[in-house]
Every structure is written in C-alpha cells, then in structure tokens.
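Section 5.1 Outputs to date
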Amino acid sequence: MEDIALWNLMLKGDMMSLEVLYRRHYELLLNYGLKYCTDEEMVKDAIQDLFVKLCNSSRLSSTDYVRSYLLKSLRNILFDKLSSLKVVEDLNELSFELTVDDTYLAALFKDNDEELLLSKKIMEAYKSLSDNQREAIYLRYIKGLSYKEVAVILDISPQSSMNLVSRALTKLRMKIADDNYLFIFSLIFFLKSE
C-alpha cells in the first residue's frame, strides 16, 4: 500500500497504518536523524516522539509527501531536543553531516588505491558544500527523494531544490576532475548501503 493511502487511513483512526509507516520509514528516519545528531538514543527517542505525536494529534491533514513530512518533523523534534539541552539555540546552528570513516573506504577499495584516493577526494569535496547542499544531495541521490520531496523538507520551492542540487553538483564537478566525475555516482551507491 502506498504511503499516502496509509496516511489517509491513519487520519481516519487506523493505527495499524501508523505502525506500517513506522516500520517502513524507521531506518530512513534513523539514518537521517544521525546526520544531525550523533547520539543514536536521542534520535531513536525523537523518532518515537514523532510517532506518538502522530498517534495523539487531532490536527493532522493529508499530505502528498509522507516521507518528507516525517523527515522534516523528525528534524524539528531533534532541534527542540537539542535546543532544550542548550546544544543549539537556532535551527540554523543545526548542521547536516554525512561522515564516512576512512577505514570503511579503505576496506571498500582495498584493491584499488586510485579509487580510494578519489573517494576521499569526493568526500572532501562533499564536505565543502553548504549544509543545504549536502542535505539536498543526500536526500536526492542517496535516499532517492524527488525534488518536490526535498523542497518540502528544506522549505523551498521545487525549482529551488533543483537549483540547489544543480549548484552542488557543479561545485563538486569543479573540485574533482571531470573524467573522475562519474565516479561520484558509484560512490553514491556505496553510501546508499549506509
């Protein structure tokens, strides 16, 4: 069953549909939350809080972008938790980080030093992007969300999300030699398993 159909059933009081959404999106939410907060238990608590709020809320409305709604809500809950701990005071202080351990890269490319060096160069180029650009690339290419879904999460128009991704890819392309640019997409495949 599609997410939208499950969401609409949930709005009618069917809590089994909420459980299906929870199971379907838990890993996505956990991975996304860990990009903002390295405390896995806090992220798990935030996911739990999100679904408790969904269960108890009487003000929910239909949405065309369930994944985006869940991701954006999780980010807001994490912000609230972190701001209550005085870790951040402003949503802009909350930074999106995709980290890949050098030992993981070394194990992945153990037989090819050239690809290992290139993958490290790609990760450095990725780190040079703005938070929004890193998040947009992550959501669009690693998690496979549409431009419209990315736009909902980042509170921008779909055209702006396309422009943001395009600018990020242009910046990556400038930092990495064009003949190696296609290697980025093979690197994205290994990041998807993360």
